[in-house]
Amino acid sequence: MRLRLLIAAFIFSVLLAFLEQLALAKFLFWHYMWFDTVMHFIGGLAIGTLVAAVLPRFRPVWYMLGVSALAVGWEVFEFYFGNNIHTRNFYFDTSVDILMDALGAITAYALARTTIWRFA
Fold first, then answer.
1. Three-point CA angle 112, 44, 37, nearest 5°
2. CA 56 to chain centre
3. What backbone phi and psi angles, to 5 degrees, belong to 23?
4. Residue 81 zone, left/alpha/beta (φ > 0; ψ -120 to 50; rest)
5. How many CB atoms lie within 10 A of CB 38?
6. Quick check: 82 pLDDT over 60?
7. Which of 4, 8, 64, 116 has the fewest CB atoms within 10 Å distance of its CB?
8. pLDDT at 78 over 90
9. Are 78 and 44 in contact (CB under 8 A)?
């Protein structure tokens, strides 16, 4: 079952990379303001699936720490390289990004809880 989650994390990551390249080529982030929100949900789903696949047992605290560290780390990365520092609502945008990362991770958590952690 862990192999299936690793494959799912890989598929979500490939989908995320494909959509990122498409969005940059077609200026989707500028034409559709909601596209960044979808990307963060898929990113949270990919991160959550990867962390669930790597954890050996049901450990919600470690799961939340791992996902939170990666989500906040990504926002620090965006801030450091100035990707969204020029947006008018920087703090609101960052809050929505972290919320969507969390919703994607919660979806992955629910998947893991009903599959590999079911009997833990």
1. 140
2. 20
3. -65, -40
4. alpha
5. 15
6. yes
7. 4
8. no
9. no
